[in-house]
Amino acid sequence: MHYLQKVYNFEQKYVTIAKKGCVNMNEAAVMHEIDPVFDNQSKILILGSFPSVKSRETGFFYGHPQNRFWKVLAHIFQVDIPITVDDKKKFLLDHHIAVWDVIASCTITGSSDSSIKNVVPNDLDRILKHAPIERIYVNGGTAYKLFKKYLEPQFGRSAIKLPSTSPANAGFRLERLIESWQIIVQ
């Protein structure tokens, strides 16, 4: 009920903003429709901000072919890069990794994290009550900022910020990302 109430309130707020004419025509109120990946063996939780347009199209996390998330993790765990959604899920669960996003719904323009508004956070209890999560990592600055604002106070858990694997983070070459993300296996 609490989650539905938040989403309902979010939708009402969006409608109110739209009626006032303050919404960019490229903005969209979007619900997160990708289920988290985890099981009762997951020890690491990696949170993004919100799925990109490509991820929403493919129905799975880090679906943009230029996103380096899968390349980075495959290199760290010294395995082939998983290709299919089933391969990716198996890879995550085999390595005790849970994946989800900070945001349950928001107003967003395309895939632009900087355009995110009207945030309704995900309920991490969906994972934390069923998996022995020891460490939480966030993929990028926006995810970290949103985690600190919405989830850390609610769940009393801190997170470690990792550099974004997004193609928008062109300042980090693949080698530098791999080096920074090595912390998840230490």
Can you give me a brief rundown of this structure?
This protein has 186 residues and is α/β, with parallel strands linked by helices.
Explain this structure to me?
- With 186 residues, this protein is of the alpha/beta class.
- It has a single domain (32-103, 121-185), classed as Uracil-DNA glycosylase-like domain (Uracil-DNA Glycosylase, subunit E, 3-Layer(aba) Sandwich), CATH 3.40.470.
- Helices cover 38% and strands 19% of the residues.
- The protein has seven helices and seven strands, in the order H-E-E-H-H-H-E-E-E-H-E-H-E-H.
- It has helices at residues 2-19, 53-58, 69-77, 85-94, 125-128, 141-155, 174-181; strands at residues 27-31, 44-48, 97-101, 103-109, 117-121, 135-139, 160-162.
- The chain has a four-stranded parallel sheet. A three-stranded antiparallel sheet has the order 1-4-5, with helices on both faces.
- The longest helix has 18 residues, at 2-19.
- The radius of gyration is 16 Å and the shape is globular.
- The N and C termini lie far apart (39 Å).
Key terms:
186 residues; Uracil-DNA Glycosylase, subunit E; 38% helix; disordered N terminus; 3-stranded antiparallel beta sheet; alpha/beta; 4-stranded parallel beta sheet; 7 helices; globular
Describe the secondary-structure layout:
Layout (H helix, E strand, L loop, with lengths): L1 H18 L7 E5 L12 E5 L4 H6 L10 H9 L7 H10 L2 E5 L1 E7 L7 E5 L3 H4 L6 E5 L1 H15 L4 E3 L11 H8 L5
Parallel strand pairs: 2-3, 2-6, 6-7
Antiparallel strand pairs: 1-4, 4-5
Helix pairs in contact: 3-7
